[in-house]
């Protein structure tokens, strides 16, 4: 999935407008070779000096120049334009921002982007195959009607994949317990559990 | 959030040297200009809220010493590297078999995502979630020494009934720490003044007049490992956690229990309480009350009464005394009935 085209395939005009804005904005923090040549060479870092961070996101390499305070979540959404990952509470309480880092589910809101330098990040945008075929977990959420408003859904799906791969989806009770870091205000919980039960076989090792 | 310089030391001595350069001997680790970060689940949150304001973060995740990431089981016990993540330790086969109380305490803490992120050392050093500590507009002696305590006359349902002072009644919210203090764990730390071992029971400090001093650590000291001595009978141990909801919530009351039984008679008991105290709380009086006794509802109740004899309730948390006692009684009886 190439970056700008992925962002502009979303269809409706508002989405298209936002995607366009974001991908244009994304050009700024992405370092060009000129910018890199001008980067300060001093060995002592200083406050407010941006830090170059390399991330591999959904199998694509990105190099960003970031304020150290930028969360991984804000790097994904505001700097790269991958807005599928949602900001709910921004304090690690809701799970909406869940992504996989080196295959493990984590909260992107509580992780400074600079701490993820060199890491492999998977977001909801990276799940479907290039031909558009959905990941089994995405398909299961549709089949089981596992959402209403959909805001928590990307985090639920990423967390569900992590939960299965950690080996904690053996029973409905386990799923409820190990998914408790993902809050759903529409209370689609029974259907979320059903979706994970449906997809767990195809998800393992996927 | 205050701007900060981000550094990635590559070994322990480099990390200590950096911390030492940018802190003084009198700095508290939680108030120093340079602070260590590992999982970040606690510190990043408090930096966003303006509660923690380091201007230099020293990321420990690139330290090359592999022992920091290992769990080693030996004849002497088990040694957890400080950077081991909560989820790894909770799922570790030997930990689950030899020290169920440790595995339980980790499994029942936080969420799957947080357990993947948070390091074991960071977990035991986590700071209170007292609402008045978290929100910078309130008076809080822990956050701003001498400013007062808004919890005393505030909504203190979550607050401590044991180990408080006139200055602070903030609860220690961790779970793992209760298992560690019950098992006589030892913390290994390295700083500019060398390496040392700290008995787990001496790591955290009760608030007293100085609630801003939370631990025994210096600002340039790094926890490198947590060691739990061998205790064959700890196979009979568990952690019981009572909360407002069944998952992903802090304890209102919890109990870590390990029992050495001769039939139904207690040879030795280890008991720690969570959710009710300002620090990880070893209930030695309850242990003593049980020694040599037949463990039944009556003796467990007497031990629980002893554990809470000094409890001091506030307006909204008096229920924790009864809840704490019942939690301990249930934990003791369930531990007795474990098939090991």
From TrEMBL, chain A:
It comes from the Bacteria. Residues 51-127 form the 2Fe-2S ferredoxin-type domain. One of its GO terms (molecular function) is 2 iron, 2 sulfur cluster binding. Keywords: 2Fe-2S, Iron, Iron-sulfur, Metal-binding, Oxidoreductase. InterPro entries: 2Fe-2S-bd, 2Fe-2S-bd_dom_sf, 2Fe-2S_ferredoxin-like_sf, 2Fe-2S_ferredoxin-type, 2Fe2S_fd_BS, Aldehyde_Oxdr_Iron-Sulfur, Beta-grasp_dom_sf, TAT_signal. This is Putative oxidoreductase, 2Fe-2S subunit.
UniProtKB/TrEMBL annotation, chain B:
Pfam families: CO_deh_flav_C (PF03450), FAD_binding_5 (PF00941). Residues 1-233 form the FAD-binding PCMH-type domain. The keyword Flavoprotein applies. Keywords: FAD, Flavoprotein. This is Putative oxidoreductase with FAD-binding domain. SUPFAM superfamilies: CO dehydrogenase flavoprotein C-terminal domain-like (SSF55447), FAD-binding/transporter-associated domain-like (SSF56176). It comes from the Bacteria. The gene is yagS. It comes from Mesorhizobium plurifarium. GO terms for molecular function: FAD binding; oxidoreductase activity. InterPro entries: CO_DH_flav_C (IPR005107), CO_DH_flav_C_dom_sf (IPR036683), Diverse_Substr_Oxidored (IPR051312), FAD-bd_PCMH (IPR016166), FAD-bd_PCMH-like_sf (IPR036318), FAD-bd_PCMH_sub1 (IPR016167), FAD-bd_PCMH_sub2 (IPR016169), Mopterin_DH_FAD-bd (IPR002346). SMART domains: CO_deh_flav_C (SM01092).
């Amino acid at each position: 999935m190439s970056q700008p085209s992925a962002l502009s395939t979303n269809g409706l005009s508002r989405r298209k407008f936002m995607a366009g804005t974001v991908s244009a904005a994304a050009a700024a923090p992405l370092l060009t070779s000129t910018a890199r040549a001008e980067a300060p060479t001093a060995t002592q870092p200083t406050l407010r000096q941006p830090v170059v961070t390399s991330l591999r996101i959904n199998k694509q390499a990105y190099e960003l120049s970031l304020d150290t305070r930028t969360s991984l979540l804000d790097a994904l959404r505001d700097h790269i334009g991958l807005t599928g990952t949602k900001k709910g509470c921004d304090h690690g309480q809701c799970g909406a921002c869940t992504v996989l880092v080196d295959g493990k589910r984590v909260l992107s809101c509580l992780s400074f982007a600079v701490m993820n330098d060199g890491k492999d990040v998977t977001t909801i945008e990276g799940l479907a195959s290039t031909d558009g075929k959905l990941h089994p977990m995405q398909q299961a959420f549709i089949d089981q009607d596992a959402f209403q408003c959909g805001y928590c859904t990307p985090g639920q799906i990423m967390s569900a994949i992590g939960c299965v791969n950690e080996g904690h989806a053996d029973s409905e009770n386990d799923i409820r317990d190990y998914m408790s870091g993902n809050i759903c205000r529409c209370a689609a919980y029974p259907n979320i559990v059903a979706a994970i039960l449906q997809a767990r076989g195809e998800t393992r090792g996927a | 959030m205050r701007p900060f310089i981000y550094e990635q030391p590559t070994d322990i001595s480099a990390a200590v040297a950096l911390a030492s350069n940018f802190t003084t001997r009198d700095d508290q680790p939680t108030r120093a200009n340079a602070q260590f970060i590992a999982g970040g689940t606690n510190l990043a949150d408090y930096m966003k809220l303006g509660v923690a304001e380091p201007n230099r973060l020293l990321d420990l995740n690139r330290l090359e010493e592999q022992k920091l990431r290992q769990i080693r089981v030996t004849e002497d016990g088990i040694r957890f590297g400080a950077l081991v993540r909560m989820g790894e330790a909770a799922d570790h086969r030997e930990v689950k078999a030899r020290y169920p109380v440790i595995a339980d305490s980790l499994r029942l803490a936080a969420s799957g995502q947080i357990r993947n992120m948070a390091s074991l050392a960071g977990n035991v050093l986590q700071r209170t979630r007292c609402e008045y500590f978290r929100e910078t507009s309130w008076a809080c002696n822990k956050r701003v020494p001498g400013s007062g305590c808004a919890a005393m006359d505030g909504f203190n349902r979550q607050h401590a009934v044991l180990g408080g002072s006139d200055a602070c009644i903030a609860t220690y919210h961790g779970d793992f720490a209760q298992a560690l203090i019950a098992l006589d764990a030892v913390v290994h730390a390295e700083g500019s003044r060398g390496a040392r071992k700290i008995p787990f029971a001496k790591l955290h400090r009760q608030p007293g007049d100085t609630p801003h001093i939370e631990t025994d650590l210096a600002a340039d000291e790094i926890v490198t490992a947590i060691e739990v001595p061998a205790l064959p009978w700890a196979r009979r141990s568990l952690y019981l956690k009572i909360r407002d909801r069944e998952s992903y919530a802090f304890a209102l009351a919890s109990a870590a229990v390990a029992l050495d039984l001769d039939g139904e008679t207690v040879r030795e008991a280890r008991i720690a309480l969570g959710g009710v105290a300002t620090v990880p709380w070893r209930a030695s009086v309850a242990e003593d009350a049980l020694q040599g006794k037949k463990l039944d509802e009556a003796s467990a109740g007497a031990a629980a009464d002893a554990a809470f004899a000094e409890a001091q309730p506030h307006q909204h948390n008096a229920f924790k005394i009864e809840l704490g006692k019942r939690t301990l009684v249930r934990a003791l009886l369930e531990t007795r009935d474990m098939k090991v």
